[in-house]
Model the fold of this input.
Amino acid sequence: MVASEPWGRIERIAEGIWGLVSDPFQDRTTLCNGGIVAGRSGVVVIEAFGSDEGARWMNEQARRLTGRSPTHVVLTHYHGDHTGGLRGAVEGDVELLATPVTRDLTRGNRNAPNPILNLATPLDTIRPTEIDLGDRSLIIVPRRGHTDSDITVEVPDASVVFCGDLVWNGMFPNYMDAIPSRLTQAVRLMRATSASTYVPGHGPLSDAASVDRYINLLDDVEAAAHRAMERGITAEQAGSEYRLPAGMADWELFNSDYFVTAIDSWMTELGAP
Ligand SMILES: [Zn+2]
Done:
């Protein structure tokens, strides 16, 4: 661990790669996880975090750890806990990277900084984009499932994947804007890369085994939605009856509605009346 604050801790993952694990139950300054990846010709910060102070703090950490200012900030998706600190994130000479879908959906957030979003470099939503940092490359992979436009940031030389909110660990995922079948598919594809470290959008750093447990949870939620439809009960009823799979009882809920939201999202996709 190289930094520890009430809102989160920064862990060194590999040479020039750090992950932030936020603690939203303590303090909401950063709110989501994220990271820093340094190469010879640039320093990339992943996410713009929940507040300007949080994003500024992360930029300071990048300077402290790498000796250089961030050159790029990458948004994994548009949710406010990942974009609320955009004004702080782009201070200095920082290039903002986001898919056009993420950029446009972010405009709908409360207090969205439209002039900053207008300057974002659009990421391809079909093919991966390479960010060449001289001695290392980051591959930005377009995906979908948590929202209509998600990306993962992959560092193949160190076997690290920054997953955005496609992966959660120790906290039940938010299905508010999910396309559930796409979410499961995206996570399975990511898992197939057999990376050593997965940085989830929320919760502690994950290894392959924790991503497998999370895939099991996604499948369990799908099964609960199928059972609810067979029984003809509502998502509200199914959500109130839902219990986490064995061994996951310590997972926390950001919001008490999250089981209902998840099952409802599946039932909608499955064509519930
Ligand atoms: Zn999030």
